[in-house]
Write a structure and sequence with these properties.
561 residues; alpha+beta; Formiminotransferase-cyclodeaminase, Chain B, domain 1; Alpha-Beta Plaits; four-stranded antiparallel sheet; 17 helices
Length: 561
């Protein structure tokens, strides 16, 4: 499986778009690397760039970008709100798929060695790539910033990990490392006061604030002379307050380094609480760079549940709720196709235009009715199954806000979320089934002249056949599982919609039957007869179970009409 890493270098230039474009242009010269986002900030005079690809190619692109930044950025003339120490201030590598943090850290070290050697830059390694425990924290390395580099480099304790221990006035120094996914997130306040913004930042960030002696105003210290601190509320969060002249407001600027401990919506909510206690109001927020889809979906669910509304709605609706609830579009439009990693990766992929699920209803029907054998019964079964559970999900959502049922909203929200999960899996299977069929056709088209070619062709046919069994088998399982949501809505849901849920049962049964037919016919071409017999027997059981469940549900439906 392909290894993927993400690189998110921060360049100390946010105003000269020509210089920024020169840097991003060299990134795009590396084949196999996809530039996901370019996020310049005028007030911070800093641009965050995000690109992704296989490790070797990403590291090559990162080197070229750092090299170009040395050419086009002069740190001796730089000023901005954000802490910085070099033209390429920081360059983290982040494991995305099929690669460990340890492997990613090794790639970071390779990049750091090359930058130090070929570009003659002082390079410090941080986070998972750090060579010393005290260098894991970026803020510790960057203390003193660019202006403090001559003194830092003269200190033997701060000898760079790679490159010379001499001050480079034009390019400064660079920090390279490997870390987990980080969300750069700014919360907007209705104040221009940096001091007040910092008070909120100190409330919420993990390390909190130093404690001062009320009498002298000086920091209190412990037995070994370290400042005493009052911890903040949010784990895995770094934060400072600053003023953004471009927008005329102060912000709390956060790095969320542990999105499991502190989800995005929690960071927003705690800033709101702190600001309110201090007589301020949060007016919105902004994401710098990209964010995983699940982070936004969980935020949408949180705010819906806070309203005591069903969270079992579509992805697009969850994203809309999250954006509006946190004011992510207050300063600039929030484009999910650009800001959400999964959507950004899919954008521009020509294969997506051919997907069945991208077609409208008329086009899907026309494609099914055409001369080609795919899409066929398997894809249609998956789609019918998706429609069946969608009807039950609709009933759950309607029931969650039925007058007089307010106290039952959570029960119906849970059912709707289960329905959405099943619906999404079945929708994906629409294309998966056709792709499985096409892979069988491709395998039969392989050359079969030599004994080696014959063996390779036979193996490919068997692998493709097994996949063509597994996809409809999974469709049958998902459609059978959907009966639990359908029955629950027939029995307990809004009685005005009982026939909608009943129609869902009819669809689910058809989906199970159709998928099982595909399993049986494809099993005849499998050499592994034991496995074939097993899946055919289980298909027959699911077939009979679907008949039984449909009959029971329709009996209830007719009794309520």
């Amino acid at each position: 499986m392909k290894q993927l890493i993400e690189c998110v270098p921060n360049f100390s230039e946010g105003r000269d778009m020509t210089a920024i474009k020169q840097i991003t242009d060299v990134i795009e010269t590396v084949e196999g690397v996809k530039l996901l986002d370019v996020d310049p900030g005028k007030a911070t005079n800093r641009t965050v760039v995000t690109f992704v690809g296989e490790p070797e190619r990403v590291v090559e692109a990162a080197f070229l970008a750092i090299q170009k930044a040395c050419e086009v950025i002069d740190m001796s003339k730089h000023s901005g709100e954000h802490p910085r120490m070099g033209a390429t201030d920081v360059c983290p590598l982040i494991p995305i798929a099929n690669i460990s943090m340890e492997e990613t850290a090794d790639w970071a070290r390779r990049l750091g060695e090359r930058v130090g050697r070929e570009l003659n830059l002082p390079v410090y390694l941080y986070e998972a790539a750090a060579t010393q425990p005290e260098r894991k924290n970026l803020a510790t390395i960057r203390a003193g910033e660019y202006e403090g580099l001559p003194e830092k480099l003269a200190n033997p304790d701060w000898k760079p990990d790679f490159g010379p221990a001499t001050f480079n006035a034009k390019s400064g120094a660079t920090v390279i490392g490997a870390r987990d996914f980080l969300i750069a997130y700014n919360v907007n306040l209705n104040t221009t006061s940096v001091r007040r913004a910092n008070s909120v930042a100190f409330d919420v960030r993990e390390k909190g604030r130093t404690l001062n002696d009320p009498a002298t105003g000086k920091p209190l210290k412990d037995a070994i002379g370290e400042p005493l601190r009052q911890p903040g509320i949010l784990k895995g969060v770094k934060a400072i307050g600053w003023y953004i002249e471009e927008y005329g407001i102060a912000q709390i600027s956060m790095n969320i380094t542990d999105i499991n401990a502190t989800p995005l919506h929690l960071a927003f909510e705690e800033c709101c609480k702190s600001a309110d206690r201090r007589g301020m109001r949060v007016t919105g927020s902004e994401l710098v760079g990209l964010v995983p889809l699940n982070v936004v979906l969980e935020a949408g669910k949180y705010f819906l549940k806070k309203q005591r509304r069903s969270a079992g709605v579509s992805e697009s609706e969850l994203i809309k709720i999250a954006v509006k609830s946190m004011g992510l579009d207050e300063l600039t439009p929030f484009d999910p196709q650009r800001k959400i990693i999964e959507y950004n990766l899919e954008a521009g992929n020509p294969a997506n235009a051919q997907k069945l699920i991208r077609k409208d209803l008329v086009a899907f029907a026309a494609e099914t009715a055409a001369e080609s054998p795919a899409p066929g019964g398997g894809s249609v079964s998956a789609y019918v199954g998706a429609l069946g559970v969608s009807l039950a999900t609709m009933v759950a959502n309607l029931s969650s806000h039925k007058r007089g049922w307010d106290e039952r909203w959570e029960e119906f929200s849970d059912a709707a979320e289960r329905g959405q999960r099943l619906k999404d899996a079945l929708i994906r299977a629409v294309d998966e089934d056709t792709e499985a069929f096409n892979s069988i056709m491709a395998a039969f088209g392989l050359p079969k002249g030599t004994p080696e070619e014959k063996a390779a062709r036979a193996a490919a046919i068997q692998a493709a056949t097994r996949r063509a069994i597994e996809v409809p088998f999974r469709v049958a399982q998902l459609s059978l599982e959907s009966f639990s949501v359908i029955r629950e809505m027939v029995e307990k849901g809004n009685p005005n919609s009982v026939t909608d849920a009943g129609t869902g049962a009819l669809c689910a049964r058809a989906a199970v039957h159709g998928a099982c037919l595909n399993v049986k016919v494809n099993a005849t071409g499998l050499d592994d007869k034991a496995y074939a017999a097993q899946v055919v027997a289980e298909s027959e059981r699911m077939h009979q179970e679907a008949d039984k469940l449909e009959k029971e549900i329709l009996t209830i439906v007719h009794s309520k009409i």
